[in-house]
């Protein structure tokens, strides 16, 4: 496995440490398409391993990566403490339920991926696992969209089979909600946005035709997966990210073909009765519908407790406490259907400001590496854009599988060595450019 550790890092780690890092990153990649429990196990292992390596002084992080790591840790600490602060100030009268409170550790996922990446990343292996996994997931999604899935799943996976029985078509021509290996259409579709960025970066940045063709097939598989999941916001975000990637990374006939495929997908959506019905409900859902209702309750929580919030994980009980006045339902009370509004309502102004700083520092670090030619940073930036498009109408951290997928991509975007995916000629030109060689090409 050490043969895959192509990286520009000068760090020299013992082979056992490198194998441990590689194994955790591969397991995390498998989790992107397989199951939330795999993601959680991989993330926990990554956090522990990164802390151990940092404590032993075996890793050296760039200054902007250190800033991202430290600020994320501060956000995690505040999330841990916020329920206690809410109890002391009277903003809440109970501790959040354990599963929801445990999500405070998700704030450390991106920093853990970035930290382990400093030891070296098996880029080719991760790319192969991601491509193969998503193609399998896409094929499974196509099957689930047309056949009522009835196979019982192991209880430890905690997958709700009923999610695959939602019919978005008609009784005569049913179209079931596709959820891939996750068996949950929104986790499946939103997680696709995280993986879509790196795949588009490979499509627009590699030299070898075979890799570009494979990346294009995977991109189409992801778009079809989102289409079959009937996830409106995810499809809109995917199309926006795809168009952005085509405009920034692709030129000539390839760009025209890509834009033509995007237009064709939009036409298919507009001609599909089930999707037309979904889109017609979308605006009503935001303006005067369920999302506006949830957001209005979120604003009421912010107005009542602007500085401290109601405590991380306490949005639902706090919102339900207003049920007599607002009429909020159990389902809508989960969050405010907006990232920033939910963060403010739960963790107050302190949590909101820390979250803003974390994302600003992450974006600045990724932009710097994108300008230096990093393929991983390019993909992470595209995923970052997709995340914030979705965040306008979803609180993505509620589903750990979704947030951990994005965090993994962001963390790897801060690592060196992803130019190995481009092809030898392009890679050598970037290395020469980085060294300031007179013969370097721009």
TrEMBL record:
GO CC aspect terms: membrane
Any Pfam family: Wzy_C
Domain of life assignment: Bacteria
Regions crossing the membrane: 25-56, 68-88, 123-143, 188-206, 226-250, 257-275, 339-363, 375-396
Domain O-antigen ligase-related: start-end pairs: 218-355
Keyword Acetylation: no
Topology term for the membrane: Multi-pass membrane protein
Subcellular location: Membrane
Keywords: Membrane, Transmembrane, Transmembrane helix
InterPro entries linked to this entry: O-antigen_ligase-rel_domated, WaaL-like
Protein name, UniProt field: O-antigen polymerase family protein
Source organism (scientific name): Pseudomyxococcus hansupus
């Amino acid at each position: 496995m050490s043969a895959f550790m192509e990286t520009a890092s000068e760090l020299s780690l013992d082979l056992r440490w490198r194998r441990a890092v590689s194994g955790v990153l591969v397991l995390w990649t498998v989790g992107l398409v397989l199951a939330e429990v795999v993601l959680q196990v991989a993330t926990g292992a990554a956090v522990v391993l990164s802390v151990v390596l940092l404590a032993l002084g075996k890793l050296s992080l760039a200054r902007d990566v250190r800033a991202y790591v430290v600020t994320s840790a501060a956000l995690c600490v505040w999330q841990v403490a916020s329920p206690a602060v809410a109890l002391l100030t009277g903003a809440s009268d109970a501790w959040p339920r354990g599963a929801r409170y445990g999500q405070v550790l998700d704030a450390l996922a991106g920093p853990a991926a970035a930290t382990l990446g400093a030891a070296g990343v098996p880029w080719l292996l991760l790319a192969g696992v991601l491509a193969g996994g998503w193609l399998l997931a896409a094929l499974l999604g196509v099957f689930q969209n047309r056949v009522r899935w009835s196979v019982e799943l192991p209880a430890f996976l905690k997958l709700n089979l009923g999610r695959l029985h939602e019919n978005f078509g008609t009784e005569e021509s049913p179209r079931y909600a596709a959820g891939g290996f996750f068996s949950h259409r929104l986790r499946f579709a939103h997680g696709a946005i995280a993986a879509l960025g790196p795949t588009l970066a490979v499509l627009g940045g590699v030299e070898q035709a075979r890799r570009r063709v494979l990346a294009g097939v995977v991109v189409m598989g992801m778009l079809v997966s989102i289409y079959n999941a009937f996830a409106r916001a995810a499809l809109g975000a995917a199309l926006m990210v795809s168009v952005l990637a085509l405009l920034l990374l692709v030129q000539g006939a390839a760009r025209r073909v890509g834009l033509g495929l995007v237009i064709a997908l939009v036409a298919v959506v507009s001609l599909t009765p089930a999707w037309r019905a979904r889109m017609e409900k979308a605006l009503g859902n935001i303006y005067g519908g369920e999302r506006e209702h949830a957001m209005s309750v979120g604003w009421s929580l912010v107005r009542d407790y602007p500085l401290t919030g109601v405590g991380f994980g306490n949005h639902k009980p706090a919102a339900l406490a207003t049920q007599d006045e607002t009429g909020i339902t159990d389902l809508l009370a989960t969050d405010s259907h907006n990232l920033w509004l939910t963060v403010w309502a739960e963790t107050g102004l302190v949590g909101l400001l820390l979250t803003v700083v974390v994302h600003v520092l992450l974006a600045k670090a990724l932009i710097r590496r994108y300008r230096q030619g990093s393929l991983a940073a390019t993909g992470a930036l595209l995923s970052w854009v997709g995340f914030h498009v979705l965040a306008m109408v979803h609180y993505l951290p509620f589903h750990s599988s979704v947030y951990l997928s994005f965090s993994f991509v962001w963390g790897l975007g801060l690592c060196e060595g992803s130019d190995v995916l481009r092809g030898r000629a392009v890679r050598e030109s970037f290395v020469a450019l980085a060294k300031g060689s007179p013969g370097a090409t721009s």
